[in-house]
DNA sequence: TATGCGATATACT
DNA sequence: GTATATCGCATAA
C-alpha cells in the first residue's frame, strides 16, 4: 500500500500500525531517527479531546489538510508535539506520536536532551520526542511521505500483534474512557501512564 | 511516588 | 482580558 493511502483512513485504524515505524528528522545539525513505540489517535469532529473538535482554525488547519502531513504545535509554553494527519482533506483526524526509541543520530539526540540520564528517556513522552528530533513550528505541514524530506515516516519492522496494547489516552479529560492510546508492551521507551490531572480553576485559588 | 510549577500560543468571553 | 492546553522537570518525602 502506498504510504499516502496508509494515512487515508481513520486515526484509530492508523494508530496501532504506526508502532514500529521509523520517524526521521533531518536538519543542518544532522539527522535523528526514532522507532515509534507509543501513539494516540485523535478523531477530529467526533472526538471532544481533539484539537479539531471545534472546527478548523489557524492553529489546527494542517489537520484538515491532506493526509500524511505533520501537524506540529507548541504546547504548555515550552513543548512541541507532532501528529500524523489522517483521513482525506477536510476531515481533521490525526495520530499523536507520543514516544519512541532513538535508533539513529544518538549523539545529536543526547545533545538536545541533556536532562536524560538514560537513552530510553531521550524520546519518552511527546515533548521529549519533539526535542530529541529538534522539531519546531517550521516543520508544521511537512509532508511525511516524501523520502529524504525534513521530516519523514517510513515503515519499519512490524511489531508483533500480541505486544500491541491499548488503553485510555494520557492527559485528556474529555472522552477519557476511549482506548485510543497504543503502545509496545514492555518497551522501556513508553511514557508512564498519567491520568489527566483535574486542574483547579483560578477562582478557587484564593486572592 | 507524588506534587508543584514553569512560560506562552491559542481560543473564547 | 483570561482560562486552558495531547507536558517535563525539580523537589520533597
Automatic annotation (TrEMBL):
GO annotations under biological process?
base-excision repair
Q: Any idea which GO molecular function terms this record carries?
A: alkylbase DNA N-glycosylase activity; DNA binding
- The region called Disordered is annotated at 183-207
- Report the superkingdom from the record: Bacteria
Query: Keyword Chaperone, does the record have it?
Result: no
CDD domains per UniProt: AAG (cd00540)
Task: Identify the keywords attached in UniProt to this record, alphabetized.
Answer: DNA damage, DNA repair, Glycosidase, Hydrolase
Q: What class of enzyme is it?
A: hydrolase
**Keyword Hydrolase appears in the UniProt entry:** yes
Q: According to its UniProt record, which protein family does this protein belong to?
A: Belongs to the DNA glycosylase MPG family.
Q: What is this protein called?
A: Putative 3-methyladenine DNA glycosylase
Q: What is the lineage of its organism?
A: Bacteria, Bacillati, Actinomycetota, Actinomycetes, Catenulisporales
Amino acid at each position: 500500500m502506498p504510504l499516502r493511502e496508509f494515512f487515508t483512513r481513520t486515526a484509530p485504524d492508523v494508530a496501532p500500525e504506526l508502532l514500529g515505524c521509523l520517524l526521521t528528522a533531518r536538519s543542518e545539525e544532522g539527522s535523528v531517527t526514532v522507532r515509534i513505540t507509543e501513539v494516540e489517535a485523535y478523531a477530529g469532529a467526533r472526538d471532544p479531546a481533539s484539537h479539531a473538535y471545534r472546527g478548523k482554525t489557524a492553529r489546527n488547519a494542517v489537520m484538515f489538510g491532506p493526509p500524511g502531513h505533520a501537524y506540529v504545535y507548541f504546547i504548555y509554553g515550552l513543548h512541541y508535539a507532532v501528529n500524523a494527519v489522517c483521513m482525506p482533506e477536510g476531515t481533521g483526524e490525526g495520530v499523536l506520536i507520543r514516544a519512541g526509541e532513538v535508533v539513529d543520530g544518538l549523539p545529536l539526540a543526547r545533545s538536545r536532551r541533556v536532562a536524560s540520564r538514560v537513552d530510553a528517556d531521550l524520546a519518552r513522552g511527546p515533548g521529549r520526542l519533539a526535542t530529541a528530533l529538534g522539531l519546531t513550528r517550521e516543520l508544521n505541514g511537512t509532508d511525511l511521505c516524501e523520502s529524504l524530506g525534513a521530516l519523514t515516516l517510513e515503515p519499519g519492522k512490524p511489531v508483533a500483534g500480541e505486544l500491541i496494547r491499548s488503553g485510555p489516552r494520557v492527559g485528556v479529560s474529555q472522552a477519557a474512557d476511549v482506548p485510543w492510546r497504543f503502545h509496545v508492551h514492555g518497551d522501556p521507551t513508553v511514557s508512564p501512564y498519567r491520568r489527566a490531572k483535574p486542574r483547579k480553576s483560578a477562582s478557587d485559588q484564593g486572592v
